[in-house]
UniProtKB/TrEMBL annotation:
Pfam families: Thioredoxin (PF00085)
Thioredoxin domain segment(s): 1-102
InterPro entries referenced in this protein's UniProt entry, alphabetically: Thioredoxin, Thioredoxin-like_sf, Thioredoxin_CS, Thioredoxin_domain
Keyword Metal-binding: no
Disulfide bond sites: C30-C33
Name of this protein: Thioredoxin
Single Gene Ontology MF annotation: protein-disulfide reductase activity
Site, Contributes to redox potential value: residue positions: G31, P32
Annotated family: Belongs to the thioredoxin family.
Keywords: Disulfide bond, Electron transport, Redox-active center, Transport
Amino acid sequence: MELIFNDGNFNDEVLKSDIPVLVDFYADWCGPCKMMAPVVEKIAEKYAGKVKVGKLNVDASPASAAKYKVMSIPTFLVFKNGEVTGTLVGAVSQAALEAKLL
């Protein structure tokens, strides 16, 4: 199951996580974001307990999006130990996302 990240919980849920975190920066009006939703959900199920997977609505949480210079959506950032270790922008394959996680 995907988590919901926002400006309020980002520090605790993402930056302080002891396992890798995949953050899907999205917006409700974004077509490619909707297209990626099932792929992100599959990754959340496949890596449950090993990787934390969640979404961050850029309209509702602009501070986090600005901090990581998210200019287009969907943008996927992988965090390990509070640092960005992988970035993918746009509609990408499940294999491409998984490659950034591992």
